[in-house]
Amino acid sequence: MNQWDNRSSKALTRRQLLSGVGSAVVVTTAGCLTEDDEVSFPLGVQLEVDTDNSDRLEWTAAIAQMMESTGYFEVDVEEHDFDDFLERVFEDDYPQYGHVPFLSLSGTFNPESYCDSLHGTANRGQCCNLNGLGYDELDELIDRARFGTDVADDPQLRERRYDEVWHELAEFRGSSIITFLTEEYVRRAAVRGFSPYPFSEWTLKYALHSPSEEALTWVDRNAQRPAETDWSDYQEGGTLRYGIGANISSFDPPYSTDTHSVAAQSLIFEGLTTMDAEGNIYPWLAKRYEALDVQDIDRRAYEPYMTTVPTDEKGVLEFGEGGPVQAVAVHPDDDRIDDDEARVLTPEGAADAVDEGVYGMQYRYHLQEGVAFHNGEELTADHVVSTVERYENSDMSSQTFDSVLHVDAVDEYTVDIYAQVPDAEAERELPGFEIHALEQAELGANEIDPLEGEAPIGTGPYEFEEFEDGQYFVATKNDGYWLEENGLDTLEWYDGPDGFPAGPVIDEIDIDIISDDSTRSAALQNGEIDVTFGLVSSTLNEYDSDDGYIVDSVQSGGYQFFQYPVTVEPWDDHRLRKAVNHLVPREQIVDEVLDGWGEPAWTMLPELAHGTGTADYDALESELREKNEFDPDAAVELIKEVIEDRGYDSSVQQ
Amino acid sequence: MSKGRTERGRIRITGFDTEPVTDRENSNDPAELTDRGKKTRTESPRRWQRGVWQFSRNRSALIGLCIVVSMSIVAILARPIEIWGVTVQPVSLAPYPPSDILWLTHDVSPYDPPSVTHPMGIDGEGRDIFSRVLAGGRYSISIGLIVVLITSTVGVVYGSISGYYGGWIDEFLMRLVDMILAFPGLVLALAIVAMFGSGYWQLVIAFSLFGWASYARLIRGEVLNVKESEYVVAAKALGAGDLSIIFRHIVPNAIPPVIVLATLNIGTVVIGVAALGFLGLGLSPATAEWGTMLEGARDSIIHGPGGDVRWWVTVFPGGAIFLFVLSINLIGDAINDTLDTRESDTAARNELW
Amino acid sequence: MSLRRFIVRRLLLIVPILFGVSVITFSLVHLTPGDPISRMVAQNPNVAPADEAQLRAQYGLDGPVWEQYLTWIGNVVTGDLGDVYGTNRTVSEVLFLRLPETVALGVFGWLFALGIAIPTGVYAAVRKGTVGDTVSRVVALSGASVPNFWLGLLLILAFVLWAGWWNVQPPREPLYHPSMLWHLILPGITVGTAACASIMRVLRSSMAEELNKEYTTAARAKGLPERQVVYKHVLRNSLSSVVTLVATLTAGIVAGAIVVEVVFAWPGLGQELVEAIHGHEINLVVAITLFTGLFVVLCNLLADIIYAVLDPRIRYE
Fold it and tell me: Could you tell me the pTM of the whole model?
């Protein structure tokens, strides 16, 4: 499962990356059925799923079986290899095939990731609007909840706007979310105080030491069974052996998108800010930051600073001599595929725009002083600027430059980061990069690679020690860690207890790569690793009831969904979609397929985004839950209604 | 009985032979010896008859045959078979559709142990293992049969041509076989699956595309042995065409070792398909194919602390493969003994493993 | 033909076979429906579409097929098997990193196979028809019929999880370290079982045959102790039938190693191959396929030469 997560995130990010390069796909909307394609019931329908995730296969089969059992559907389940499946669902014509694709996606703290990815017009043919869904009112609802000076200033307004989105989506029913995923970490009793983070790539860093929530992990090899402990009982030293399910494919932050690589890097690198488990932001390498200015503009305002660049038939920008240049933004009125050229904002143009006062937002970050990199360099504004330059045209460039406009060094310890448009998510989105040492800031793509003699250098609490490809990675304590040198008081926001350590207390982190889930489970039971995650769900209850192990479950932001072919008759009738939605046995799926380790999706908003995504989650759930209940009778009623209203043929005996 | 001949490629051992190489039968009948051509011509049917008789006296071979036949029949009768909407086989031995998820409709949970209603228990996806094991033979056995049919046919034609014509044709064709045999079969199958993707026919291709090579080499050796025999020479003298000589006179006499190889090969292909399934490169995970079932069952072998081994999930499909391949091997051995062909045995068994 | 001439001839014969092996590997890639490069680009998230043209040039995929083959084989001969995507590492680096592990596993498999098969085969042949013979025959048949991944899982269950004699993961030591050798025992057994069964069966039947031959009777008549007859004369002569199996068995062990490495998390070429297939790393798949082919060809050659040196009774055709 874990391996799948890893691969999917890789592949999906390439899609996102592709979208950044500009392969916007034109989808012809409206049903393209010809006259003689009579709709009749029982209705033939094809559910499509990849073979990578056995749980997903299982509920796809279960839903197919439920649909068949009503008598109104003749269902085929078609299975594809994961990569082939992705290729397939992103095809231009896919929405017209009338198939129902099953997939999963990983969201973030940002509520937008639970509505826009599946339903936004801009995501058609990309990740992950697979059914060509999209209409202006919805786009506007989603847009108004994130962008604009009003929501940037008023979080409550933002929450209410998102509530409107959830209601609209439940009414339109373009897709069904089946479950929200949880991630289960199993650890031996020797690991004390460990608390997982919703996103597995940050768990290690968060659990080892997070002053924001007093999270601290230490190792006590004498501990036999789990007991109530408090961080104040902590012991220093020791080695934590952490089992992961896929190779660390890269140590180069802008060139790694899979969770395991990011997890390994998180020990070594740090960013300007950090987040707690609720997604609240705390300054980190930046001592503090503030929003200096917000201007009510959209991307058209950058028109005077844009240069015209020819595009090829795939929409790729052809920069000519000197290699590709980062496209910070493309003019919203230009179409890179249909037109031969596009107006593009390059980093140079962005700098000019900022010089002349054209930008969406201006944030000022004041850096910590006395932060030493593992190679002895001291953190300055230059590091931030050159890091962002290294992110240009990298695998992470589209994520970085969908919000960042420009970065400017104000003085040695002050940096301004400009956002392209007023954005309520700017605080989380803008500083999303790992600060590099100047020594490595000039390196080319993938050149930070310990196997090629270039070990990663950061400011983090651990230093790179040893990496054996596909086998293990060892990181040892950074003796000159800046936070320990300067003390917790340098974190201006810190108001926790006095004795809390200023850095992780474990000396060595040993990441063991064991790709097979059951082998990893065996290694855990054999005492070869201390913590791992992504084990087979049917064994979790056994770990849970054993005294020697602790299972921590955390909502991960991942969600499992399927989409209706809304542009194809008769699926353009929302009642039919609602009917199928009533055939999804969400509770049973969680109980039987996931052995209880998951959450039925009663709304489209998972717990970790409740903070900014709804004014009152309980109210939202009580309003929407009934629409997502398993109710075959209601489903049959709705189908009958559709048949009668639209005058479809039906040979179903009921 | 030995020919003292361990031919592999270019090497031939001599010095130990106590019998002439060309003479397959140790005939003591002087009357027959006087008319060798006649003897060899009548040899085939007699050899077959005697083989059948010997085979029927071999208890373990009969048991093997019974198991293989009954497993095949059960696989056919497990679920009704429809061809173009017409039910050609209405019997349904399996109590549940093999891919039905039973927790939706029955009071069961994934990994329920064997019980009266579910004699082999429930698998991790809530399906009835008994039904799946019954139906599972359809994939393994049919892929095994199809592959063996294709590869043996191609191999026999190829090898006979090579052996019959000899000279540079033989040299060229056999070098090609050497090249193919340089690769372990499973590696080639993996590479093919990597290129073509996985699925039923892809698996057939993966095992067929290069699988004929060992037949070709085997039959070529046999052809070389019978080619010089007098009846062939006689047939040639009578003006029979090459094709007619090859397929009417040579191949029937050279076929016994091919049968042994083919029999044993069914077993290797079944294991090979299971191995690809186990590596996640076989049929889609929901398929009730034995190897694929084992892949799904892999998770259940290693349980949590204090948990029970869910042996039923692995033992039954694994046992089905084991039983089937074992029976095939028993049959192959028996045919080998009766038809007296020694070397095809190891060739078949090691072609993949 | 003298021994030297035989060896020279055999070495020369290798050349066309190597050529053929490379052609087969090459055509595997080109048999793929569609253009391998566009498929690779489409499916590998680490390859940017912009690299497509460069990759095409690297493989010479713009010319006619023979030209493409020449470009490719030229690269292969100079050791350039391409890069591992998303890194700056070359495929050859990966191959040579993983090769020793697979070789070590294979050697263990061989040791196990010979260590068990020879005494058992001898015993079965000498005691032909006894209970012991039947038992060993059943065991050999079972060994040939059991899927090795299944056997490996059962061994892990029994000796790693229940008995706790081994760790799940290999120790972090160089290959020659005793703890590493200890760790190789279970995978070695798993990978050697099929070969062991084959050797046992072949040895049993060829020994049984030799035991009935005249020279055996003569040796016995001379009054040689039975032990000496069996081990010095009969076994030695029967082993030649085993030596002829070396190449096929090695191929079998290499193939078995692929699956066994996955089961035992042993970081060899097999695991790399399976990962490469899942990750659509076509460069690696091609390289490993080519490599196993070459490896088996060389083993074959070695076996033939050893055979020729050992057994003077061979006539070379």
Answer: 0.81
